[in-house]
Write a structure and sequence with these properties.
Radius of gyration of chain A: 19 Å
Shape of chain A: globular
CATH architecture of the largest domain in chain A: 3-Layer(aba) Sandwich
Structural class of chain A: alpha/beta
Number of helices of chain A: 8
Order of helices and strands of chain A: HEEEEHEHEHHEEEHEHEEHEE
CATH class of the largest domain in chain A: Alpha Beta
Strand order of the largest sheet of chain A: 1-2-4-3-5-6
Largest sheet of chain A: 6 strands, mixed
Oligomer: homodimer
Helix content of chain A: 25-40%
Strand content of chain A: 15-25%
Chain lengths: 333, 333
């Protein structure tokens, strides 16, 4: 295993320390229990927005903490759910009196722990709602998930709920928007290589020289099928077709699109993927109204990418365009 | 070779097509000859800022085209200098009557071609100045370079010259600022793995399982030494020491710092590197006033990172903070 780390057991803590040092104008990191929180939290009268999950998917979620997006993020160890006490502490820290929304990717540990945290918070008087993101069309049920996995649509839900909260919308309205984004969002990923979990020290799975994992999960969970490497034109078409037929998306739709690298794939290749995706969508009269291309939800050092599409309307696009100031997403400020 | 591409010969053109589709609000890509240019070029009365070089280092340079940074970028084939006709066409396209600055990384082909283009442009009445970036402290002379190679400081030079031009500074003043950034900037990189050039189809160099290349060039050129993999604490200390003693940087200095991934290294690891770097600098009473952590100057899919430091003063920091709106760097807009 070759990584820019010290001791494998210190990876998350040390990365968070560097992250905190780099972005102290926006956020701070608390270490006992561990959470990333807006420097100016809580914002009185505003709904707090929290997410969290295992580390190894950066910038998700800590990189989306800041004005107009998340108020806090709870990072677990690599690919491991954070614990209820992290979520409870983060929820308390961002409670400005208007309640707190938990945005939770659908993994069994995350869902269970966020539920326990919500109960603890409500017992002490904080109103909590949760939105479960389950946008990954690759497989039904998976290694760590009952039902569909939650992946890239989480980024859109965090942005749009964050904007809604910043506008002063109340908790039920913000939660309904999160649900709407999830209902209208679909994702799929594929891997050219495995990732290597630092504590394991070896690749999570093995792929042959000419093989890819289509529909891979963000922790290296198996996808739909192992298939031969093909030109990206064919791979993008496979992913797009699976995503589009699932909702289904239709001609005349507008979408927010994301092509995210999984950590080991450079911008040069991601833009080729995006180019193919836009050609496919244009041929179906689907308009890409907004897009992200880069590392937004990664799987450690895995080579590959994911595609996410959210069917958008004026309301979602307007919230998308609102100012955001986080380490990984910034505009209008 | 496993990459998200179609035909290896189409990589640059297809990536640029996707890039143009993704960022048509900011820029357009001309294909004959090839250059990326601000959508609103030329800006009358403003000094034009151009850079360019081989592809494979994205977001450098095209990702820095936009308001407050580059007016145009000339991408060559992967790791291959663009040609004088690209540079001449780009220079003409951004000539708003106040002259054009060429920001050139010190590689023999780039320098020669930008010189030829400058002569052609001056013959047709456009005033051109050039700044050569040669900030890489790893080696004196290299595979494609007489003198030091040009790497990460290019990003700072492009931002600061772009801001100066946007303020309306004249050509000689903008060029002097570019020279100042180069004079005060130093960089060094290291590789955990080789990159693979698509047309070659195999790794550019071989590294043993426990080996790294310290001081690697952004095209995979040999560095200072091949050494055993060590904790990132030791690797960061080696790079920082080499950089700091070269200028030299001194206690009380303020710096703009960049930790750039080389394409195959994820954010989780880059923030560990940044954390180590900031500890080293703090111990020497050097203050990081501004920083970038992410993929800014890559080497295709190489795993590893580079560190760049620019000794900053009020003038440089003020220009750094000016608004910028490009695909890869955005604030204040």
């Amino acid at each position: 295993m070759k990584k820019l780390i010290n001791d494998p057991g210190d990876v998350v803590r040390e990365s968070l320390a560097g992250f905190a040092a780099a972005h102290s104008d926006i956020l701070k990191v608390c270490f006992d229990p561990v959470y990333v929180v807006r420097a100016d939290a809580p914002v009185t009268g505003k709904v707090g927005i929290i997410s969290g999950g295992g580390s190894g998917h950066e910038p998700l979620h800590g990189g989306f903490v800041g004005q107009g997006m998340l108020d806090a993020a709870c990072p677990g160890q690599v690919f491991t759910s954070p614990s209820p006490d992290q979520m409870e502490a983060a929820t308390s820290a961002v409670d400005g009196g208007a309640g707190v929304l938990h945005i939770v990717k659908n993994y069994t540990g995350d869902v269970m722990n966020f539920e326990m945290a919500a109960e603890l918070c409500e017992a002490s008087g904080t109103q909590v709602e949760a939105v479960i993101i389950n946008d990954d069309v690759a497989v039904q049920d998976s290694l760590y998930t009952a039902g569909r996995r939650g992946t890239g649509t989480t980024v859109m839900a965090e942005k749009i709920c964050g904007a809604a909260a910043a506008r002063g919308y109340d908790l039920s309205r913000v939660a309904a928007l999160g649900q709407k984004v999830n209902d209208k969002g679909r994702s799929m990923g594929m891997a050219l290589s495995s990732c290597t979990v630092p504590a394991a020290g070896k690749p999570t799975f093995e792929l042959g020289e000419g093989e890819i994992e289509m529909g891979v999960g963000i922790h290296g969970e198996p996808g739909r099928e192992r298939m031969p490497l093909q030109p990206v034109r064919a791979l993008a078409a496979y992913m797009a077709e699976t995503i589009l037929s699932d909702l289904p998306f239709r001609g005349g739709d507008r979408v927010i699109a994301m092509v995210s690298g999984l950590g080991g794939t450079p911008p040069l290749e991601l833009y080729i993927v995006y180019g193919e995706l836009e050609l496919i969508l244009r041929a179906r009269q689907i308009e890409v109204s907004r897009r992200l291309v880069g590392n937004y939800i990664t799987s450690l050092d895995m080579a590959g990418c994911s595609i996410s599409l959210v069917q958008a309307d004026d309301e979602l696009l307007s919230l998308w365009d609102d100012p955001v100031h986080t380490p990984a997403l910034r505009w209008g400020t």
